[in-house]
Amino acid sequence: MDFALPAPVLEALQRVNARGHEAYAVGGCVRDLMRHVTPHDYDICVSCPPEETHACFAGERVIDTGVKHGTVTVLLGGMSLEITTFRADGDYKDGRHPSSVRITPSLKEDLKRRDFTVNAMAYHPASGVADPFGGQRDLAAGILRCVGDAPTRLSEDALRILRALRFSAQLNFEIDPDTGRAMRQLRGRLALVSRERIAEELLRTVRFPAASRVLAAYSEVFLAAMPDFPACALARGVQALAGLPGGEDALGLAALLHGCDESRRHACLASLKLSKALDGQVSQLAHWADVPFSLADAPVLLAQMGREQMQRLLVLQQACGTISPKEAAERSARMEKALADGLPLRLRELPISGDDLKALGLSGPAIGQTLNALHRQVLRGELPCDREQLLLAAKAGS
Ligand code: ATP
Ligand code: MG
Questions:
Q1: Is the CB of 144 under 6 A from ligand 1?
Q2: Are 158 and 115 within 8 A, CB to CB?
């Protein structure tokens, strides 16, 4: 089997070979090339120690990324390549990290410590594919399987349990029964995984359309990773996920969480420690997922959440069955019209201000309330965006 590796990757392999060492493209990039998917990055494994890798790339920018694990990053021809010395992991002490890392001269040993058979293949243009654990067979059959004994591999590093869910969704693969059984048995060990890593894998899972199938099949594993998530809300979450086109983290997570009550949802989100921006997006989407709103209110919501978020909401509401595709299209058109018409999306864009209302005799909280009410009416198309008319309306209301 022949793959077209990018020129900088070929050059990296050659530079290491030229000094008498082995070098291969390895892991996800080999898997993706075999699936005819363009890899988003290329990892390289080499038989020489990191100091020697440095020497192979003299004159280039080399960054010591993870010296402890034998990884250096080389910037070559505009690509950033992670180059890692063949290694075998020692005992795992904390259920997450090997307590020691041993350099090995054997490619097979290096492939053996990798998580899944489809991720445990290497490639060099001269020698072809190295696949000692049946990765190609599993890739062809669409099966995700641990390298070696599943219970052992998943207890070594509990993160692999979540990586299994993620890859099963990402590749749309079935999980091998032995691997699946071990995932369920060992799900309690997910408590050993940091919340940040749980969040990362969960987000990388829910962005794929197959996530609904995977999370439904492995609900107890998901619930072990998210102890705050109420089991009774999972069926609705999974159903909404199934209706999404995929591709968006915020949408995927909001779909999954929308069936939880507000306080549980808040607890789940807090536990994931997402960025403030993503957290805000997900909460807002989940909050509105089941709330139908009238066509006239579309510009009001647009003013509250912005165009992109509003587009997400329309996708989500369809996935949740809150609105029909026709209703979504109408709301989307109304929103676009509001934008094209230049409706005042922000309060301060209204042609009247608090001072005008004060001059009419209003004071205290009544000023803000009246302004907001007028703004809403303008957005709903009940009042023109006209200073005189708004002053008249304010007078009539006061
Ligand atoms: P993606 O395309 O999503 O980046 P990937 O296969 O490149 O997928 P990475 O997380 O980037 O996944 O890891 C690179 C490789 O390192 C994997 O293909 C796998 O061989 C190995 N690997 C990563 N994490 C682990 C782990 N926790 N246990 C064992 N092997 C791992
Ligand atoms: Mg990768």
A1: no
A2: no
250: nearest Cα among 233, 274, 230, 268? 274
User: Ligand 1 in contact with 119 (CB < 6 A)?
Assistant: yes
Closest residue (by CA) to atom 17 of ligand 1? 27
Nearest CA to ligand 1 atom 11: 28
CATH architecture of 142-273: Orthogonal Bundle (1.10)
Question: Candidates 3.100.10.10, 3.30.460.10, 3.90.76.10, 2.40.50.200; correct CATH number of 1-134?
Answer: 3.30.460.10
Query: Ligand 1: which atom is nearest the Cα of residue 170?
Result: 3
The amino acid that residue 134 corresponds to is G
Report the pLDDT value the prediction gives residue 383, as an integer from 0 to 100: 96
- Alpha carbon separation from 54 to 10, 27, 45, 85 (Å, rounded): 17, 22, 14, 11
pLDDT given at position 96: 84
Give residue 336's identity as a one-letter amino acid code: E
Residues with CB under 5 A from ligand 2 (ion): 28
Distance 120 CA to ligand 1 centre (A): 9
pLDDT above 90 as % of the chain: 92
- Convert the pLDDT of each residue in 116-152 to its tens digit: 999 999 999 999 999 999 999 999 999 999 999 999 9
State the distance from the centre of ligand 1 to the C-alpha of 57, rounded, in angstroms: 24
